[in-house]
Write a structure and sequence with these properties.
transmembrane; 4 strands; ND/Mrp_TM; 19 helices; globular; 479 residues; mainly alpha; transport; single chain; NADH-quinone oxidoreductase subunit N; NADH dehydrogenase (ubiquinone) activity
C-alpha cells in the first residue's frame, strides 16, 4: 500500500507542488501588501516554470489513486500548453497592471490555483476528479473575471460568468449522476468496460449529452456560448487572454479525455452531438463577428468559431482526430496570446481603447505592431503558409479521413466567411487615415507579441516537426 501511495504521489507531484506553492505565495502577498504585485507576478511565473520542468523531467507516466488520475503523453502535452498559457497571461499582466486598480497581489495566486485545476482536468480519470478540477478552475475564473472591482463591466462579467457557470455545473453533475446510475461506475476505464458489454440505453445517452453540455460551456461553443462576448469584453484584458488560451486548452483536453476514455465504445453516438455543436459554432462564430466594433467581443466570437474547428477533429474519433485537436489547440493558444498582446498595447495616455477603428493607420504610426497583428489576423483566418492554416489542415483532413467530408466543407466555407472581419482589421491598419499613435507598449507585451508572431511564421516551419511528433505521441495514448 505504501508503494502504491508513493507511486501515486510521484505522478501527481507537479500539481501538489503548484498547489502548495500557490498557498505560500498567498501568505507572502498577504504580509507584503499591495505593493508586492509585480514581485508576486514574477514569483508566480517562476513557480509555473518550475512546475513545467518537474512535469517534463520528474513526473513518471502512470495511473494514480486507483485509476482516478492519469498522466500519459496526452495529459503531459496539454498540461505543458496550459502552463505556457498561464505564464504568458501573467507576463501580459505586468504591462497591464500599471493601469489603476488592477495591481493586486491576489491575481497571480488565482491564476496559479486555476492552473492546478486545469492540470487536474486534463489528467482526470474519474467523474469526481473531473468535477473537482473543473470547479477549481471555475471558482478562480469567477473571481478574476470581476477582478477590477471599480469597473461596472468587470463586475457584470464576473456575475454573469458565475450564474451561468453554476447552471453548467448543475447540468454536468446531473449528467454524471445518470452515467453513474446506468453504469455503476465513475472511473473512465470502468465505464468504457461496462459499455462494451451493454446495449445503448436512452438514459445513458441522455446522461452523456448532459455531461457534454456542461463541458461545452467551458469551451463556449454554441448553444452554450451566451456568456462569452460579455465576459470577454467586461473582464480585464489579461484575464480575457487567460480565458482565450489556457482555459480553452484545458476544457478541450478534458472533453477529449472523457469522450475517448469513457465513451469510446459509443463514438457513433457522441459524434452526432459533436458534429452538431461544431457546425453551429463555426457558422455562428463566422457570421456573428461581422458586425462587431469592439475587438474583444470580436475575439469572443472568433473563439467560438475556432472551438468549432477544433471539434471537427474530435468528431473524427480516431488517432488522426485527436492529433489534430492537440495541434489546433497549441497553435490557437499562441495566436490568441499574440492578439491580446496587441489589444493590451492599444493605449492612449492612461486610457485603453478597444474599438477596431482606433487601429486606423497603425501601419504608419507603429508598423511593427501593425505587421504583427496582420500576421495574427491572417493566421486566425487560416491562410497559408501561416500556423493557423496548418492547424485547420490537420483537423479537416482528420474529418475527411473519418468520412465526415461534409463537416470539413462547412469548415472551409465558414473560414472563408470569417476572412471578412479579419481582413477588415488589416484594411483599417494599412489603408485608413492614421489616428493618434498609441503609447509605446511595455517590454513584456512586446516580448509575448514577438514570440507569438515568430511562432506563427516563420519559426513554425522549424518547430513543426517536433510539435507534430509530440502531438502524434499524445494521440496514441487513447489507442
Amino acid at each position: 500500500m505504501n508503494e502504491a501511495l508513493s507511486a501515486s504521489l510521484s505522478i501527481v507531484a507537479p500539481e501538489i507542488f503548484l498547489g502548495v506553492g500557490s498557498m505560500l505565495l498567498l501568505m507572502f502577498g498577504a504580509f507584503a501588501g499591495e505593493r508586492s504585485a509585480r514581485l508576486m507576478t514574477s514569483l508566480g511565473v517562476g513557480l509555473l516554470i518550475l512546475t513545467a520542468i518537474w512535469l517534463i523531467v520528474g513526473a513518471p507516466n502512470g495511473v494514480a489513486f486507483d485509476g482516478t488520475f492519469e498522466l500519459d503523453a496526452f495529459a503531459r502535452f496539454m498540461k505543458i500548453l496550459v502552463i505556457v498559457g498561464s505564464i504568458a497571461s501573467l507576463i501580459l499582466t505586468v504591462g497591464y497592471s500599471e493601469t489603476p486598480r488592477f495591481a493586486r497581489f491576489e491575481f497571480p495566486v488565482l491564476v496559479c490555483l486555476a492552473t492546478v485545476g486545469m492540470m487536474v482536468m486534463v489528467s482526470a480519470g474519474d467523474l469526481i476528479v473531473l468535477y473537482m478540477g473543473l470547479e477549481l478552475l471555475s471558482l478562480s475564473s469567477y473571481v478574476i473575471a470581476a477582478f477590477n472591482r471599480d469597473s461596472i463591466k468587470s463586475t457584470e462579467a464576473g456575475l454573469k460568468y458565475f450564474i451561468l457557470g453554476a447552471l453548467s455545473s448543475g447540468i454536468l453533475l446531473y449528467g454524471a449522476s445518470m452515467v453513474y446510475g446506468f453504469t455503476g461506475q465513475t472511473q473512465f476505464d470502468a465505464i468504457a468496460s461496462v459499455l462494451t458489454t451493454e446495449t445503448r440505453s436512452v438514459g445513458l445517452l441522455v446522461g452523456l449529452v448532459f455531461v457534454i453540455s456542461g463541458l461545452a460551456f467551458k469551451l463556449s461553443v454554441v448553444p452554450f456560448h451566451m456568456w462569452t462576448p460579455d465576459v470577454y469584453e467586461g473582464s480585464p484584458s489579461p484575464v480575457t487572454a487567460f480565458f482565450a488560451s489556457a482555459s480553452k486548452v484545458a476544457a478541450m483536453g478534458l472533453l477529449t479525455r472523457f469522450l475517448m476514455g469513457a465513451f469510446e465504445p459509443f463514438v457513433a453516438d457522441w459524434r452526432q452531438v459533436i458534429v452538431f455543436i461544431s457546425i453551429l459554432s463555426m457558422a455562428f462564430g463566422a457570421f456573428a463577428a461581422i458586425g462587431q466594433r469592439n475587438i474583444k467581443r470580436l475575439m469572443a466570437y472568433s473563439s467560438i468559431g475556432h472551438m468549432g474547428y477544433a471539434l471537427v477533429g474530435l468528431a473524427a474519433g480516431d488517432e488522426a482526430g485527436v492529433r489534430g485537436v492537440a495541434i489546433y489547440m497549441a497553435i490557437y493558444m499562441i495566436m490568441s496570446l499574440g492578439t491580446f498582446a496587441v489589444i493590451m498595447s492599444m493605449r492612449r495616455g492612461d486610457e485603453m481603447t478597444e474599438d477596431v477603428y482606433e487601429l486606423n493607420g497603425l501601419s504608419q504610426s507603429n508598423p511593427t505592431l501593425a505587421l504583427a497583428l496582420t500576421v495574427m489576423m491572417l493566421s486566425l483566418a487560416g491562410l497559408p503558409p501561416l500556423g493557423g492554416f496548418i492547424a485547420k489542415y490537420y483537423v479537416f483532413m482528420a474529418a475527411v479521413g473519418a468520412g465526415l467530408w461534409p463537416l470539413a466543407i462547412i469548415g472551409v466555407v465558414t473560414s472563408v466567411v470569417s476572412l471578412f472581419y479579419y481582413l477588415r482589421i488589416v484594411k483599417v491598419m494599412w489603408f485608413d487615415e492614421p489616428s493618434h499613435a498609441f503609447v509605446p507598449a511595455s517590454i513584456e507585451l512586446r516580448g509575448v507579441l514577438a514570440v507569438s508572431t515568430l511562432f506563427v511564421f516563420p519559426a513554425y516551419i522549424f518547430v513543426a516537426g517536433p510539435m507534430l511528433a509530440a502531438a502524434q505521441v499524445a494521440a496514441r495514448s487513447f489507442f
